[in-house]
Write a structure and sequence with these properties.
Oligomer: single chain
Number of domains: 3
Number of helices: 10
Structural class: alpha/beta
Largest sheet: 5 strands, mixed
Strand order of the largest sheet: 4-3-5-14-6
CATH class of the largest domain: Alpha Beta
Mean pLDDT: 90
Helix content: 40-55%
CATH superfamily of the largest domain: Periplasmic binding protein-like II
């Protein structure tokens, strides 16, 4: 068995969350990934993943082994780079895109530390609430929220977010707390268009409720501000109101009816031969995002 390759396959499955996704990321066939992972589990004598038709999740031994596997691969990459004379500080311009509020709240702090650490790198950060084509628009890296449609990109999963309905305590005390999605018909609704483009809000089990918002904003920040002011209920992504929930400015309602969470990925098009600047940013950002409770709610 090529044990190093087996570790790469194991880490890819853990990062992507599926055998098929790991196969695409590694440019391998799904049967090959399955065979290599099965050989690694047989060699270790433990089951690393729970597999079902819906998900591939780490077992307890798998979670413990993942830390060691990442370290071994990082040590090997460092040694390989040094042997090739390629272990230089990242340099050049890193062009990055992310959703607007996610970029402002979570990417920018990482970028400032990244620039402090790597003096030969400059950054151009473009925050947009749309999915851009990395290759066509000349970006090195993107942060994407939601299921990925472009299978040609290298993707590293770094967290999850929820679609939450929230309001201020003042509003809820005055107008009452909705107990089911159908109760929303009797409430003031603030639409945040970048999050929900239509007036149909989907909930757990596929239930769809047609809303009649009294006011719609093209800015998520404006919708959140209106909710904090006590005017009504709005629906946003959990990371967008993490700090507001923490200090009590907003409260989540209907949590039992939320649809499945959305994954957060860092993606790039350079594959395993990614440039030093892309690897360095991805590693730094992934560690920060995974440690942030607002991005794993």
């Amino acid at each position: 068995m090529d044990r190093l390759r087996a570790l790469e396959v194991f880490v890819a499955v853990a990062d992507v969350g599926s055998l098929a996704g790991a196969a695409k990321a590694l440019s391998m066939s799904a049967p090959t990934v399955t065979r290599i992972l099965g050989g690694l589990e047989a060699d270790l004598g433990v089951l690393l993943f729970h597999r079902s038709t819906r998900a591939t999740t780490l077992t307890d031994p798998g979670r413990s082994f993942l830390t060691d596997a990442r370290r071994i691969l990082d040590d090997y990459q460092t040694s390989s780079d040094a042997a090739r004379g390629a272990h230089r500080a990242p340099k050049g311009v890193l062009r990055l895109t992310a959703p607007t509020l996610f970029g402002q709240h979570y990417v920018s702090p990482v970028l400032l530390d990244f620039l402090d650490r790597f003096s030969e790198v400059d950054v151009e950060a473009i925050y947009l609430d749309r999915v851009v084509s990395l290759i066509d628009e000349g970006f090195d890296v993107a942060v994407r929220i939601g299921e990925l449609s472009d299978t040609n990109l290298m993707a590293v999963k770094v967290g999850t977010v929820r679609r939450v309905v929230c309001a201020s305590a003042t509003y809820l005390s005055q107008y009452g707390t909705p107990q089911t999605p159908r109760d929303l018909a009797g409430h003031r609704i603030i639409a945040a268009r970048p999050v929900t483009y239509t007036n149909e809000w989907r909930f757990a089990g596929g239930e769809t409720i047609k809303m009649n918002p009294r006011i719609s904003f093209s800015s998520v920040s404006a919708a959140i501000s209106a909710a904090k002011a006590g005017w009504g209920l709005t629906r946003v992504l959990s990371y967008q109101v993490g700090a507001d929930l923490d200090v009590g400015d907003l409260e989540i309602v209907l949590s039992d009816y939320e649809p499945p969470p959305l994954p957060i990925h860092i993606v790039h098009a350079e594959g395993r031969n990614a440039s030093a600047k892309v690897r360095a940013f991805t590693d730094m950002a992934a560690a920060r995002f995974r440690a942030n409770s607002f991005l794993n709610m």
